[in-house]
Every structure is written in structure tokens, then in C-alpha cells.
Amino acid sequence: MKEAVLWAAAGTGFTFLMTAAGSALVFLFNKKNSLGIQKMLLGFAAGVMVAASVWSLLIPAIEEVENNGGNPWATAAVGFMLGVGALMLLDSILPHLHPNAGQAEGLSSTWKRTTMLVLAVALHNIPEGMAVGLSFALAAQHGNDPALFTSAMALCIGIGIQNFPEGAAVSLPLRQEGLTPTKAFLFGSISGLAELVFGILVVLVAGGIESFMPWLLSFAAGAMLYVVVEELIPEAHLGEHSNTGTLGVMSGFVVMMVLDVALG
Questions:
Q1: What is the pTM of this model?
Q2: CA–CA separation, 219 and 85 (whole Å)
Q3: Cα distance between residue 236 and residue 228, in whole Å
Q4: Domain locations in the chain as residue ranges
Q5: Exposed e or buried b per residue across 53-80, where buried means at least 16 C-beta atoms within 10 angstroms of its C-beta
Q6: Which is nearest to 188 in space by CA: 52, 56, 34, 36?
Q7: For the chain (length 264 residues), average pLDDT per consecutive 10?
């Protein structure tokens, strides 16, 4: 348990630093030329999350249930839909604002636009942190199985890579809102803390009741794909021309697929 928590903390710590690195793009791009960059980066993040949901979460969840003599499709399907429902509930309750949107979502709030922009991406980071933490917890439950451990590392690297564009997806719109580059960078970096918190919390839950692991893996997959379909892909295709966002999605999917297969 202790080792799994430490690995989850290290993994989500890495993904947090990648979010901060992506946020630093605000120092390179001005307000006018950042929209096309945002679309490409959001598409890339979406592609990574789709591939990670299948190879790193759903397939391991199904294999876990099969090894224990359970019903794999039922567990995966129910866990998946629970993850979708949980993110849908958070999406409808938590006040947040997507880049280039005129109206905030969630419950009515007097919070600043900048705060709600940060919360929009923090929502994305919840299932990502869960995914990284669960992958290391799964490896720990199987005696640090080398294959599972390298698969967890592949997921960690993949999520870290896609966190780079997610950090930019916070800092660049904040710059457009009128914040200084330094403040936009700091707020963008802070949005990544959700991964660290939820990555450790989910390891503690999985370690307490090991039979929950397939459910939690499927739950994280559903939550991630909800974010992709509801938010990332639509935002990546804003405007008349969608080729930039589409190519970003395809590139992200291929990168994550290669990482998982090559390292796993």
C-alpha cells in the first residue's frame, strides 16, 4: 500500500509538472495567435485520453474480472457508466467556464471568470489522476508485476504528455481574459493539482478493498471519455475549419497507443 501511494504521488507529481510546463506556453504566444494552438493541443489531449481509456483502463479492468471468474462485460459496462454519471453530475453542479464560451456552466455563482476557467480544466484532471493512481495500485496488488508496472509508467508518460496541452488550454485563455503572463501561468499550473489529490485518494480506496479495482478502472475510463466527448473534442473544433483539432486527436491517439503497446 505504502509503495503504491508513493508511486502514485510520483506519477501524478510528474503529470502536474507537465501541466505547469504547458502553462508556460503563455510566455511564448500572444492573445491573437493562441486560438489555433489551443485547438490543436486540446485535440491532442482528447486523442491521448481515448486511447488511455481503452488500453490502460478498460482492458485491464476486463482482464481482472476474468481472472477472478466474474462477469467482465457487466463490470466494465456498469463501472464505465457510473464514471460517466459522476462526471456529468460534477459538470452540472460545479461552476466552471470553458475557453471561448460566453456563459458559465454548473450552478449559478458569483465567482470570477478566471476562477471558473481554472475549474473547467480541473474537472478534466480528476479522472486523469485517478487513472494514473489506479494503474500503479494495480501493479502493486500483483506484486509489482513488471508488465503492469511498465504499463502504469506508459500511462503516466501519456497523461503527462497530454497535460502539456491542457496546461496551455488554461493559461492561454486566461491571458486572453487580460491576466498577465505570470498570473496566467500560475493559475494554469494550479489546475493540475487535482490529479495529485485524486491520484492518491483512489489508491487508498483501491488498497482498502482490492475487489473494487475493476470497478474503479472502468469508472475512470467512463469519466475520461465523458470529458473527451463533452468538452475536449467540441472545443478542439471551434470555428469553421476543424482540420487542426482533428489532426490533434489522431496524433494524441497514436502517441498513447504506441506508448502503451511498446512499453506495456
A1: 0.87
A2: 9
A3: 10
A4: 2-29+50-263
A5: bebbbbbbbbebbeeeeeebeebbeebb
A6: 34
A7: 84 93 85 65 88 92 89 93 94 81 79 84 88 90 83 91 82 84 91 90 79 91 92 74 80 91 75
